[in-house]
Amino acid sequence: MKLAKNSVFAIYYLVLMWASAPSFGSVYCNEEGVRLEVLGSGELSYDTARAAGSYLVWNNDKARVLINAGAGTYLRYKHSGADFSDLTAIVTTQTGIEQTADLPSMLMASLRSGRNEPLPIYGPSGNESFPSITQLFERLTSEDGVYPELSSFFSHSSPAGFRVRVRDVNPPARKHWGEFSNSELRLAAIVVQSGNIPSLAWRVTIGETVIVFAGEFSNKRDIVADFAHGANALVVSHRLPAGARGLPLDFYVTPEEIGRIAAKAEVRYVLLGSRGWRTFGRENATQESIATAFSGVQLYANEEECWGL
Predict the structure, then answer these.
(1) Which end of the chain has the smaller Cβ count within 10 Å, N or C?
(2) In the prediction, which pLDDT does 157 show?
(3) What DSSP character marks residue 222?
């Protein structure tokens, strides 16, 4: 039987679409124990197909903590197979677009999630140039805000069946914030420096497993190593190549500094996430620079990868 040219093309197109379509029912971290999944591994750029840096911490096949929810996180979260009702908390390292852009989408998508427990969302306090996490939500979700349809999530009559509770985290000086814990996990945070942007590093502890998400920071106060001491994994935004100079050093750490911090902290793994345009194609140089001080395992973050810890 002969097919018309247009029919052949149509069949080819359908097969191609089927082969390239994401399998939204798949679960990447469906194993026992603590696991770390990369939802997004890049920055905001048309140069790559990566979502902005975001992560899920799983425990015994349940997604427990979401770290950052920047552009692309919503779809990556759906693709992970994670149940929104399982989330214990959402935390952000900053309140910028790359850390929070998809939070409204994730909340709106949760209307039929079946969640009935309050959802805590923690983030940094603000300054004159950047809003705190509570100010951000006020601007987004108040009745006269950008997305007034989300205002009901903060009321007793929330149509989603749960209330959102947003809190600023602002521990003084070198002190740790540690006001959240339950029978399964503990959260801690410290203020880190990234230029003039209010920034936090987060420590997630589940049993004997510790993961530290340092995010974007300059380490001028040299406090991350102590905060991450003994962690199974240290997750760092990898935006600068070895030998970088100038203004970017006020916002990000170099591979040399990452190696020194990881060695001092005695962590097992370093995960290089939120990869930027300055660092792609320079992986060998980065590894060599980190290895001058750190002899542990180095990992490059890629979309939807998952590691047991």
Answers:
(1) N
(2) 84
(3) -
